[in-house]
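Task 17 of the worksheet. Students: predict the tertiary structure of the chain below and write it out as structure tokens. Keep your answer in the requested format; marks are given for formatting as well as content.
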Amino acid sequence: MSSSSGRLTPEAARGLQGLLRAEIGPGLSERELDAVEARFGFSFSADHRVFLGAGLPRGSSRWPDWRDGDPEDLAGRLASPVHGVLFDVEHNGFWHPDWPSRPAGTPEALRVAGSALEGVPRLVPVYGHRYLPGTPGEHGHPVLSVHQTDVILYGNDLADYVRREFTGRSDSPHAHATVGFWSYFV
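Model answer:
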């Protein structure tokens, strides 16, 4: 459902949206997409921009409402992956092997982990706890299901994810993580 170059087209995005169990409202304009990115300090991937420009899924709290949603809710969704990692640092002994040695005290461990997490690629919510890396201008990233440090590949790309999540069909199970820190978990 994407073009021969692997990029999601507006036509393919509208076709995918026809598979959703959601009302589809008018798509976000380039100006609206830019405003969301500026307000919340992240970038949508190219496929995510095309998908949201084709139509904005709504009618369920699992779809982020980038047009009229509560800013605190949207900020919380954006922060959730990092907060989940910090929860596992504090309560489950998680420590990434690329970080400096884990400090003995929990408060100091949280400070070091928090500092390290400031530089990881942002994950942008697609639906519920399904995320795409926020990589401006890039396409074809897999969709990740993220709950704390339980990170699962949920689709080879946005088109494959929609088919998998909403119809049970998938292109193939051979997706691989493509973005820095988050690749460690899968």
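Marker's comment: The CA atoms of residues 85 and 148 lie 5 Å apart. The two ends are 25 Å apart (CA to CA).
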